[in-house]
């Protein structure tokens, strides 16, 4: 497993886009958006917090997760299937599930790195707060990351080839970004749209993240939706996934 992970890491780093979008892009957005004066003032819509304190870093962490889950992961696995890598591995003592596990762990590590850089840069450059409830933050991050990566495996399962995988992933990713409040804050969404957001995994993820920034333990309802999403997407991925 360790050797496979090292190989996958080297292959991952060869593609500059794998690093640029999930790691550098969120950081650049934090720095750029964080310079807007109005976003550095307390906002009643965010319980008196500034937009840059919790909302901005939360959205950027989510952007990194969705980018990895719906573009990098499906593309890599669909490419391996298309090239026959998984089929050939199935004839060796190294089961393809080890490759799958390495891919999941690699993307999770990259997402964690992106989250850490976003928080540190936001604090040093923009003056953002850091999560006051650290253990709650880690729990929410791991649950949200697992659910989104499992969703990405569903995309990888149904994508016919490597070219189609990122396209399908993008078609799913942008509506999820919208429901998470990337362009329209959830607080001003119509009631029906906010209800959909509440059950979309990304909505509870954003809310739970903001709770940890405020020093509160994430609400059980938010954790329950993420756990349910993880169970649902994992079951679908197992049912639909094809090694060849």
Describe the fold and architecture.
The chain has one domain. 74% of the residues lie in helices and 0% in strands. It has ten helices and no strands. The radius of gyration is 18 Å and the shape is globular.
Q: Cα-atom Rg, whole angstroms?
A: 18 Å
Low-pLDDT regions: none
Q: In sequence order, what are the helices and strands, one letter per element?
A: HHHHHHHHHH
Gap from first CA to last CA: 21 Å
Global mean pLDDT: 83
Structural class of the secondary structure composition? mainly alpha
Number of domains: 1
Tally of alpha and pi helices = 10
The proportion of strand residues reads under 5%
The helix fraction, in percent, is over 70%
Described by strand count, sense and barrel closure, the largest sheet is:
none
- Tertiary shape: globular
Q: Report the strand count.
A: 0
Could you write a compact summary of the structure shown?
This protein has helices spanning 2-14, 16-33, 51-82, 85-89, 96-126, 134-158, 164-179, 191-198, 202-213, 220-240. It has 244 residues and is mostly helical.
Task: Give the key terms.
244 residues, mainly alpha, 10 helices, globular, transport, Transport permease protein
Record the SSE blueprint.
Layout: H1 2-14, H2 16-33, H3 51-82, H4 85-89, H5 96-126, H6 134-158, H7 164-179, H8 191-198, H9 202-213, H10 220-240
């Amino acid at each position: 497993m360790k050797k496979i992970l090292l190989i996958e890491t080297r292959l991952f780093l060869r593609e500059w886009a794998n690093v640029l979008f999930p790691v550098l892009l969120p950081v650049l957005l934090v720095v750029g958006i964080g310079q807007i004066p109005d976003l550095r003032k307390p906002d009643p819509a965010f319980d008196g917090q500034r937009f840059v304190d919790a909302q901005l870093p939360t959205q950027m962490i989510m952007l990194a997760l969705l980018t990895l889950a719906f573009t990098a992961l499906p593309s890599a696995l669909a490419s391996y299937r298309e090239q026959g890598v998984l089929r050939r591995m199935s004839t060796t003592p190294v089961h393809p599930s080890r490759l799958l596990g390495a891919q999941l762990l690699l993307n999770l590590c990259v997402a964690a790195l992106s989250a850490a850089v976003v928080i540190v840069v936001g604090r040093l450059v923009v003056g953002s707060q850091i999560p006051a409830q650290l253990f709650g933050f880690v729990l929410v991050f791991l649950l949200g990351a697992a659910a989104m990566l499992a969703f990405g495996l569903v995309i990888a399962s149904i994508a016919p080839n490597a070219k189609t995988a990122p396209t399908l992933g993008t078609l799913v990713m942008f509506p999820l970004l919208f429901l998470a409040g990337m362009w329209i804050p959830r607080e001003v969404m119509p009631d029906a749209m906010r209800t959909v957001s509440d059950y979309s995994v990304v909505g509870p993820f954003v809310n739970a993240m903001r709770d940890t920034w405020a020093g509160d333990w994430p609400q059980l309802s938010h954790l329950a939706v993420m756990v349910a999403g993880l169970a649902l997407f994992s079951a679908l991925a197992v049912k639909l996934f094809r090694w060849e």
